[in-house]
TrEMBL record:
Protein species of origin: Paenibacillus barengoltzii J12
Principal EC category: transferase
The protein's name: Heptaprenylglyceryl phosphate synthase
Gene3D superfamilies: FMN-linked oxidoreductases
Function: Prenyltransferase that catalyzes in vivo the transfer of the heptaprenyl moiety of heptaprenyl pyrophosphate (HepPP; 35 carbon atoms) to the C3 hydroxyl of sn-glycerol-1-phosphate (G1P), producing heptaprenylglyceryl phosphate (HepGP). This reaction is an ether-bond-formation step in the biosynthesis of archaea-type G1P-based membrane lipids found in Bacillales.
Pfam families assigned to the protein according to its UniProt record, in alphabetical order: PcrB (PF01884)
Gene: pcrB
InterPro entries, sorted: GGGP/HepGP_synthase_I, GGGP/HepGP_synthase_sf, GGGP_HepGP_synthase
Source lineage: Bacteria, Bacillati, Bacillota, Bacilli, Bacillales
Lineage: superkingdom: Bacteria
E.C. numbers: 2.5.1.n9
List of residues binding sn-glycerol 1-phosphate: K13, Y160, L161, E162, Y163, S164, G165, G190, G210, N211
Keyword RNA-binding (UniProt): no
Cofactor needs: Mg(2+)
Amino acid sequence: MKQMISGWRHVFKLDPDRQLDDRSLEAVCLSGTDAVMIGGSSGVTYDNTVDLLSRVRRFEVPCVLEISNLEAVVPGFDLYMIPIVLNAGHQDWIIGHHAQAIEQYGHLIPWEMLVPEGYLVLNPEATVAKVTKAKAPLEPVSARSYAQVADRLLQLPIVYLEYSGQIGDFELVADVRRTLDQAHLFYGGGIVDAETACRAAAVSDTVVVGNAVYDNLAGALETVAAVKGSAAAES
């Protein structure tokens, strides 16, 4: 599981609650991205998740579900990403919903397919920040501390810095990455073209591209080669 994730440099994130035509979806799935992540902060249902999964499954790209709603958990994904929002203002998003899920569905959970993510929500205007009542933004020293809790204390395989809708503070991202011992650093937010993708790739392990798929598909597709090129240059 961790070995699979460590090979991901680029991921497209698709929202079941947003419309994407078949030609655009095909371009995303055949782009060379390492994985397609399905998930969203609102409007995610069982039906629209099943529909999007069935469309992505026509292609060979790995497809993972990032769970934000228990009612929208669908079988058939390659992995299930479980966000733990470290800077959430309500405990439900740190451990509450997780305990509820285990109470209701523990006997059905494929534990070997679950990947916990230590989330830091860093854009206070994002929907995810409002839903989780995230304490954002964070000073660099606080971001480092939260990240080290995830990495060293909780031993989570992923630390995910989520700016959701805006470009992040890449100095802070680089600073957090330097503090990590074993966790893989995901970055998401404001990646719209090759230039922003290269900047993100320079300070993170995996770049997640989401909104650009719907707002500027051509720019979003450019990000794959940009990120992969950055990885090749580093090696």
